[in-house]
Amino acid sequence: MKKLMIGNEAIARGAYEAGIKVVSSYPGTPSTEITEFVAGYDEIYAEWAPNEKVAMEVAAGASVAGVRTMVCMKHVGMNVAADPMFTFAYTGVNGGAVIVVADDPGMHSSQNEQDSRFYARSAHIPMLEPSDSDEARRFVKTACEISERYDTPVILRTTTRLAHSQSTVTFGERVETETKPYVKDITKYAMMPASAIKRHLAVEARENRLKAEQDKLNLDEIHIKGKDFGVVCSGVVYQYVKEALPDASVYKVGMVYPLNVEAIRKFSESVKELIVIEELEPFFENQLKANGIACSGKDKTGLQGELNVNKIKKAVYGFEENKPLSDLPVRPPMLCAGCPHRSVFFVLNKLGCTVTGDIGCYTLGAQPPLRAIDTVLCMGASVSMAHGFEKALGRENTKNQVAVIGDSTFIHSGITGLINAVYNKSNITLVILDNRTTGMTGHQDNPATGKTLKGERTYELDFVTLAKALNVPSVVQVGAYDLKLLEETIKGELNKDCVSVIVVKQPCVLLDKSKKPFLRIDGCVGCKRCMKLGCPAMSLDDTGRAVIDKTVCVACGVCKDMCKVGAIKEA
C-alpha cells in the first residue's frame, strides 16, 4: 500500500512497523504531529509528558525494561532532555531507543535556530537524517536495529520542511519484537563514577566499531553525474540540490554522525570541486576540512535560515530563477478573536507593568497594539526572570513586575521557578494563563485538562490547589472576560509584599463551542477605544467608526466592556 504522508506521519508509521511499544513526548512544533499520529496505533502506548526531560527518562526506562521505544521533541526541547540523554548514551539500551529531534531552520515557530547535529557529536550518539517521508519511515526501523546492535540510543533528525512536507510512503508490515528480559547490572545501568568511567570506554569502543562497519549499513548514497563539482548534503536539502543542480554528482549523507569521512574523501577525488550544502552550522564542512578534504560551503550559503532551490542556485551559479514574489502584503501572526489572553495583556499594558513572558501563543502579547511583554527567553523562564528582577532591583522598584506563563508551560518548567521564588522570599506576581489546552502546538491535552493523549479521563491538576501546596501566600482565580474584575484583581495582588499567583481560567476560544449571541455596533462615536484590543474581528469603516465582522467575532464581550458609550450590544 502507498500513501502520501507528511514526514511526521511517516515517522509514526515507522514506529509502528519497527515494533516500538512505548512513545513519550512533549508537543513542540515541528515535531508535535509525530506523537499524535502514533496515538492512532493501538499497539503502541503513547503519552504526553510534562516536559522533554521526563519524556527522555520514560523512554530510557522502557528501553532498559526491554521494549523498543521512541521519544520526540523539537530542537529546543533537546536542551531540556540533554541531562538524561548524555547519560543514556553511557548506559546504552536493552530494547532499541530512538530519539527524534526536529530542528527549525528559519525559526518558523521557535526562539532560536540551533543545530541539533552537535548534540549527536557531543553525546557520541549515532544520528540519522532522512530526506523524504518514506526514508523517514524506513530510518525509524533502521535506528532501532542500530540501537540494539551497537547498544546505544539513536537520534533521528528532521527539520520543519521534512516534518510537514508530503511524499509517497510505501507501507511495510509491523515487526512484533519480543520484550527482552531485564537483567540487573549496576555496572551498565547505575551511573555512579566507577561505573560511568567504564561505560565511557564502552561508548568509545562502540563508536569505533560503528565507524568501521559504517559502509555495511548502506545509509549514505552516492549519485555520480558530472565531474566539475560534487555536492555533500543531507536531509531535505538533498531534494533542493537535486532540483537546483541536476547535473551535479551528489553524496547524500544518511548517517549524520559519525560522518563517513573516508567515503566522502573517495567521492571528492572523483570531482574537481567539492561543495558542502547544509543548513545552519558548517557541521559537515568543518569535519571534512579538519580531515584534510578541500571543500567550500558556508562561504556560499551562509549560516542562517532555510535553504531552498533558488538560494542554492544563487550560491553555486550566482543567479536565481523564479524569484519569489516580494510585493505580497505581510500578515503578522496575532491572537485569535476572543482569545482570553488579550484582556490580560490589555490590563497589564494599561497598568504599565514590566512583564516577563514565556513560550506559547501568548508571546504575541509583545506585539502592537498590546505591547505588554518585555522578555521572552525559554520555557518556564518568566517566573525565574521576574524573581531575578526583584532580587536585582528590590521590591520598591519592582512593584509593577509581573510574570506571565501558560498552563502547559507552567507544568513544563515553571513550577520549580515558583518553588524557588517562595523559598527565597520573593515578591513577584505570577499570572498563569489557564486556557485548558496546549494552544500553540495545536490543542494537545496536558495534566491540567484531565485527559490523556489517547483521550482517556485522568486526574486533573488544579493550579490553585498546587500553588497553595507550594506555600504561595496569596492565590486567586479569575475569568478573563470581566475587564473590571481582572484589573482590580491584578492591582490588588501587585500591592501584596509576597509571592502572589493569579490563575486566569478561561478556555481557548477555538475549543469553546458554546453558542453566544452576536454583537453589533449602534451609536459608535469613533473614539477608537475598542481598537486598542487589537481584536481581528474589529475594524474601522470609511467614516472611522468601528464595525464587527460576525464571521470572526466569538462574542467574548471584552470590546463591550471597553466601549464607554455603550455602542456595542448583543444582536
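The above is record 1. Record 2 follows with the same two-line structure.
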Amino acid sequence: MRDINLRYVDETYDEDGLLKTFKLKYPDNYNFGYDIVDDIAVNDPDRVAMIWDSCSGEEHKFTFAEMKRMSDKTANCLASHGIGKGDFVMVILKTKYQFWYTMVALHKLGAVAVPATHMLTKHDVEYRVRSADIKAVICTNQSNVSRAVEAAEDIPTLKVRMLCGETREGWLNYDDEIEKASEDFKRVDTLASEPMLMYFTSGTSGNPKMVIHDHTYSLGHLMTAKHWHRVIPDGLHWTISDTGWGKAVWGKLYGQWIMESAVFVYEYEKFEPHEIMSMMEKHKVSSLCCPPTMFRLFLNAGVEQHDLSSIKYCNIAGEALNPDTFETWRKKTGLVLMEGYGQTETTLTVATLRGMTPKPGSMGKPSPQFVVDIVDENGNSCPPGVNGEIVVQVEPRVPGTMIGYYRDPVKTEETLRGGWHHTGDVAWKDEDGYFWYIGRNDDIIKSSGYRISPFEIESALLLHPAVLECAVTGVPDPVRGQLVKATIVLKEGYEGSEELVKDIQNFTKKETAPYKYPRVIDFVKELPKTISGKIRRVDIRNNDVKLSKKE
C-alpha cells in the first residue's frame, strides 16, 4: 500500500493521538483525474474504485484501471463534440455509474463540471444555462428533466445534448458515443488554481448562487475521508446522496479515492429503510454517512432486523443531530454517530474527528485544516455560551474553500469579507471548544422579541412517542411577528387530533422553555426533503407565506 494521500498532506498529532495540524500541499498543475485516478490505475490497476448496485438488479464493479479507461474514452468523446478547457458542462445523472467517469473526464479536459438535480424544471434549466453559459448537458433518461431541457428557451450557448441510455431526436446517445471513442487520451495541461467544479446553491430568496471551486477542492476532502469518515483502503464507504448535490462529492468521490478506498453506490427509486439496510448487509459496507433523518428511519423500521456488523464508523451531516437519535443508535448498534458540518462553499470545517469523544447534539470542533470562529455582528469572537455566526478564514486561502460566486462579485464580497467566509449559520461554543448548531440566520424564529432555534424544539418534539419526523419553522403572525410552527409526521398507529395537538404542546413545554412551544401544529404524511434526505424547511416557510398573503 503506497499511501498516495501522504504526498498531499503534512499532519501532526498531539500526545493523546489527536490530529493537531493538517496542511495540504500540491503541485501547480495538480489535477484529480491524472494525479489520483490515473496514478492508482497505473500502480494498482486492480484496486476497486466503486461497487454499484441498483433496485433493478443491475450491478457493476469498477477498478481504478477501468475508471481510467472509461474516463479517457469519455474525455475523447466529449472533446470530439467540441468540449474543452473552460467549458461549462451540466451533469444530471442521479446515481448512475456514468457520473463517476464523466466527472473524472471533465476534470481531465479542464472543463467545469456542473452537477445538478434531476428535479429541475424548464425555468430552472433556462436560468442555469443562461447564467453560466452552459455548453453541454449530459442527462439521465430516468426523469422528466430531459424534457425540461428540450422545452427550455433562449439558451443559445447550449450546443451539445447527450442522453444516457437512450437515442432520441435532438440528443446524442451518451453511452454509444463513449463506446465509439478511443482509449488513448493525452494529458491536457491544467493549473490547480483553475476552475474545476460549480454548484448552484439555493438560499431562501432570489435565484440560486453559483459556487465555483478550483482543482484543489478535491484535496480539501482528504480530511473528510481520512479523519471523519475514517475510510480504509480495503473498505467500502457509502454516503447516501444523489449526485445533484454537493454531498455526493464529499462522500462518493474525491477524498475516498485519494485514500484509495472504494465507494458504494445504490440506485433506488424511493428511500425504503429495510431495502437500504439490506444493501449494507449484502455488500458489507464498512463506513456509512447520511442525514440524521435516515438514521431515525432506520431505527423506526427496526435496525435490529439486519446484520450491520461490517459497519465500523457512522457519520451524519446535512442537519443537526437530535441527542435521542444518537443514544438510541448507539444502544442498538454499538456505533456512535460522528457529526460534521460544512457547506457547498467549503469542505468539512467543523466535525467530531477520529479519536474525539462526541457530545450528542454537538457539531464537534473546528477542523485543523481551517481557522474557524464564532463571531458577533461586529466581527468580534464570541465567548463560550454566546450565539454568533460561524466564519472560516480564507486569507491566506486554504484548499477546500470556494473561489467565489461565479459572475457575482457583490455577493462574493459580501460573503468573503475581511478575509473570512461568512457562513450565515448561527452556533455557540462550550468551554471545551465544541460547537453547537442553532440554525441558519434565516431559520431563526423571531417571536414576541425572542430568538428561537428550530433545532432545540425539534429535539424536544422527537422525544414524544407519537412523533416520527418534524420540522419547526416560523409562520407569519401580525401580533408576535412569527409563531412557532411544527410540521409533524406521526408514527404508525397515531392519528392527528386536537387532543394530540394539546398533548404535544404540553409535552414540549416541559422539555424546553414554555415560550418556545409550537402554537401551530400541522400533521402531514411526509416532509419536503432533498433527495439526500435533508428536510427543506424553506419549502414549508414559503408555502406558509403564500397562504398568509391569500388570507
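The chain has a mean pLDDT of 93.
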